[in-house]
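In practice, a research group might receive sequence data for several interacting partners and want a quick structural hypothesis before committing to experiments. The following worked case mirrors that situation: the sequences arrive first, and a predicted assembly follows.
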Amino acid sequence: MAKRYDLRRQPGFSQIAWFCIFMLYAPILMLVLFSFNDNRSVVKWTEFSFRWYTEAFANDGIRAAAVTSLKLALVASVFGTIFATMAALATTRTRPYRGMNLAYAIINQPLMIPEIVTAIASLSLFALIKQITGVTGIGYLMLAHTVFCVPFAYMPIRARLEDMTLTLEQAAADLYASPIRVFWEVTFPLLIPGVVSGAMLAFVVSLDDVIITLMVAGPGETTLPIFILGAIRRGITPEINAVSTILLAVSILLVAVFFLFQRKTKK
Amino acid sequence: MPVTQNMNQLKPTVLAKNDADEVPAISVQGLVKTFGHSSNQITALDDVSIDIQQNEFFTLLGPSGCGKTTLLRLIAGFELPDSGTVLLHGEGIEHLPPHMRPVNTVFQSYALFPHISVADNIGFGLRMLGWDKAKITNAVEKMLDMVRLSDLANRQPDQLSGGQQQRVALARALAPAPRVLLLDEPLAALDLKLRKEMQIELKRLQDQTGITFVFVTHDQEEALTMSDRIAVMSAGRVLQVGQPKEIYNAPEHRFVADFIGDINVLPGQVKHRQNGKLVVMIAGGSEVHLPDDGIQSDSLFVAVRPEKATLAKSGTGALSGVVNNIVFFGSGTNIHVSLSDGVDFVVQTQGSETGLSLGDAVSVNFADSAAKVLRN
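A structural hypothesis for the assembly, expressed as tokens:
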């Protein structure tokens, strides 16, 4: 039998792979490990304990920041996903029109623009609006997050729509479903895996954002990453490790739920 | 809302059953459809007009790219014509979107909804028409029974075999009792044995429901077996419409003759026209007398089916040639004869014993009535 080509047989391949995996996950592993360390030091291990978790939960600042972050991420991912779904439909489920490719490019462009530029642009625009209307509040931050979530949610939704054959929607129309019913009876149910992964991506991106939040957030609108950043200026504490570990656990959970969900809908 | 009114008129359940039988189920007039922009425009349909009678099993036959599927999609409403009209039982429908046309389609890929059960797939059209649940359940049971899938009602489509999916697609399209059922190469994905079974099943369903079937296929045998009438299409045009026998025995176009079954095509020259007869000199030197159907050109083609010709000893027939191949195919034998001018002529005989061997000099005979003039 002829030898099959197998990348794993290349010299050094598995070593490189293991090195990369180590570099990716070693810092995270350290962080998780020391969040359970019963010692103020983040470099010297003494004893296993939940002490920093209890302290983090008892910390009002952390609690308030977590609530703000979750609220923000929820609003941004829900609205961002709705707009992204509409945009994805408009760029895949219409007769080709002039400027369709342009629309596609415009929707994705925010991913290429340096975030600091978007942040400063948002800051000046919102400052202007605030000056004219006098309205303040967390609404600006929600708006900014919603906007930058759109392209992230758009990508998986569009990919899913492109995979779905138009014939199913034509079959529904053929069986007397009006365009709106075609969408709710056929397009949307089949699109759900794309919508869910778009929403989760948007949620995580919003939860993680620093630069735009830093610029746009008003007084008292502190999100978890901003709080951590502030705390770190006063020195790394295991309490921060504990909060970061919780953030990590939440995102792993989201991804796991998503994969289970997707497997179920595929069956 | 005028649109809704219009739709109600056309809903299959509301349609009056006592239409005059003379009104064609589908009448397309002067349909033109082009795709693409001016620089690389493709004409999919080039002035197509067909009348399809009620309760007819009508087949659109042609090679891929001939426009048959485009015509079907124009009737279903998935494409809009550049010009021309589509009449359904006398009413113009070419401006209506698909969901307002009381015609249903069986797709080549079946297009079953993967996220709902077999029963829900079959009941989909009825639900969209606003039937109440009990009535839908009843109708779905009837349909399941008709396509013999009652045991599989609660399965998901991807748990079914290809043949079963095909039957669900049929039941789903037939459930709303459409005025016309459109079938887009529905048997193409099935293996030969299953295809034969489904051919019989389709005929049975058409008899049982009395619904007009418009069937698209590129398989000439399938078309001949199943159809009441066939329209042979090529390059966006309808070349000939007729019963299978007419299409087979009296092809008018060279393309039709070539496409349907095996046929010998001989170039000929009109010697003279008299009393409604054409006297045509065919290659090899003999004369054939053919009915004059008004063909203008003097150079034409004469077609003879292999089974309509016979072989005789050399020098006794119209055409002479040499046996260059003998092909046994089970129920008969094809004898290929090289005519004196080099044209290959096939004669079909019954049985396996021909008493001939390669290189024998023979004569080919056929009655004048077996020969057909073809338009090029």
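Before designing any experiment, note the following. The CA atoms of residues 41 and 167 of chain A lie 62 Å apart. Chain A has one domain: 16-266.
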